[in-house]
């Protein structure tokens, strides 16, 4: 049965301890980096450490620059050393050389991720001297208070369900195991931090609605969604946990991954800076799901598409019925109904 979807401009919450202090502005967002620094946020503020992977271009680069403007110390990692060094210079121009760490890193290689952590500890670790009992030996502990861990490195190699096995392995090595390598290396010390921290994993709408065209990428991003949801739950259930997790779901963003090297920015895409500013606004507010719109797809349309995809299972439709010839008209009607009354600026595509 076709039901009119319920759409609310209210964003869902993860019960984050940050929730009450910072309200969300889902429908009113205007990219504005100046506004981000107005409040002293417990995590995103001057002097704290951000570690960003995939920072040599696109969204990761934009995140490094925006967090530098907020005066965090920035550790950037990427497999593309030449570009990474340039981004390091750009970040240093904002925060100064002493507050930038550039570590060429292939996130799919655990030893390189461990090396990244060691470099961060070496540069910004604080040595604390602790006495356990009055008669016991002194223990020297090194703390690095990582505030923002942004797992963003990603690739878009293609693979269909019965073809391109090597691409499948490579894409999972980076998009999924790259994140897992970073989580398994950085999260244990983060759990012992005194200060709050956050982990932002970059997923994709393709990992939720699974559009035909790149099964390997979609599956890797579906795994990132699952992994990050589990991480959020595990952190939430851990007594005295100071760390939250966030699934960052960019909209269409003009980057190297989406052809920025060769063409002009399509009107429908956002700049990486816009996507990052929107993301920072939402994670500051404590949102777990950071579903980012773009100039072509607004939040309400994403909500409809996500609900339709879930409805395939709940209502017993064929897989990916949105793209099934027998369901096309029904889906379009569903979207038309759902978008009616949402207001100006509705989408050109389904
Ligand atoms: N651009 C979009 O429209 C869009 C939409 C949804 C999700 N995303 C996701 O956003 C993230 C950033 O992508 P982007 O669009 O900025 O693309 P991008 O290509 O500009 O940036 C990705 C970066 O990751 C780096 N990288 C690749 N493999 C790596 C590895 N093994 N180790 C370390 N770094 C590695 C690349 O060198 C590059 O600098 C990706 O996870 C991507 O899947 C992008």
Structural summary, described in words:
The protein is an alpha/beta fold and 350 residues long. It contains eleven helices and eleven strands. The chain has helices spanning 33-36, 58-69, 81-95, 110-124, 165-175, 177-191, 206-209, 215-237, 272-285, 299-314, 328-339, and strands spanning 49-53, 73-78, 100-104, 126-131, 138-143, 146-151, 197-202, 243-249, 253-254, 270-271, 289-291. It has a seven-stranded parallel beta sheet with strand order 3-2-1-6-7-8-11, sandwiched between helices. A two-stranded antiparallel ribbon has the order 4-5. Helix 2 packs parallel to helix 3, helix 2 crosses helix 9 and helix 10 crosses helix 11 (328-339). The chain is globular. It starts with 32 loop residues before the first helix and ends in an 11-residue tail after the last helix. The structure holds nicotinamide-adenine-dinucleotide (NAD). Nicotinamide-adenine-dinucleotide binds next to helix 2. Residues 8-20 have a biased composition (Polar residues). InterPro entries: NAD(P)-bd_dom_sf, Sc_DH/Rdtase_CS, SDR_fam. Keywords: NADP, Oxidoreductase. Residues 1-20 are annotated as: Disordered. Pfam families: adh_short (PF00106).
């Amino acid at each position: 049965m076709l039901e009119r979807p319920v759409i609310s401009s209210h964003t869902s919450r993860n019960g984050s301890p940050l929730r009450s202090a910072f309200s969300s502005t889902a429908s009113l967002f205007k990219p504005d980096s100046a506004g981000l620094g107005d409040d002293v946020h417990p995590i995103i503020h001057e002097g704290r450490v951000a570690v960003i992977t995939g920072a040599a271009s696109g969204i990761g680069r934009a995140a490094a620059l925006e967090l530098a403007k907020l005066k965090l110390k920035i550790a950037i990692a990427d497999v593309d050393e030449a570009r990474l060094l340039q981004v390091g210079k750009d970040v240093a121009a904002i925060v100064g050389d002493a507050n930038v760490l550039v570590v060429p890193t292939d996130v799919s290689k655990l030893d390189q991720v461990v090396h990244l952590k060691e470099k961060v500890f070496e540069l910004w670790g604080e040595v604390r001297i602790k006495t356990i009992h009055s008669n016991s030996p002194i223990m020297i502990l090194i703390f690095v208070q990582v505030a923002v861990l942004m797992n963003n490195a990603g690739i878009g190699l293609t693979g269909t369900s019965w073809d391109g096995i090597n691409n499948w392995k490579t894409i999972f090595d980076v998009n999924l195991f790259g994140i897992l390598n970073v989580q398994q290396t950085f999260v244990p010390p983060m759990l012992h931090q005194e200060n709050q921290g956050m982990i932002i994993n970059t997923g994709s709408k393709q990992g939720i609605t699974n559009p035909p065209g790149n099964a390997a990428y979609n599956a890797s991003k579906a795994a990132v969604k699952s992994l990050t949801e589990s991480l959020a739950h595990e952190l939430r259930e851990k007594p005295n946990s100071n760390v939250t997790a966030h699934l960052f779901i960019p909209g269409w963003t003009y980057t190297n991954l989406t052809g920025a090297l060769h063409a002009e920015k399509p009107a429908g895409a956002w700049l990486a800076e816009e996507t990052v500013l929107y993301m920072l606004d939402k994670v500051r507010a404590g949102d777990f799901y950071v579903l980012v719109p773009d100039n072509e797809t607004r939040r309400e349309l994403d909500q409809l598409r996500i609900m339709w995809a879930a409805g395939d299972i709940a209502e017993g439709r064929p897989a990916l019925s949105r793209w099934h010839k027998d369901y096309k008209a029904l889906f379009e009607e569903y979207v038309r109904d759902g978008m009616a009354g949402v207001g100006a600026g509705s989408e050109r595509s389904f």
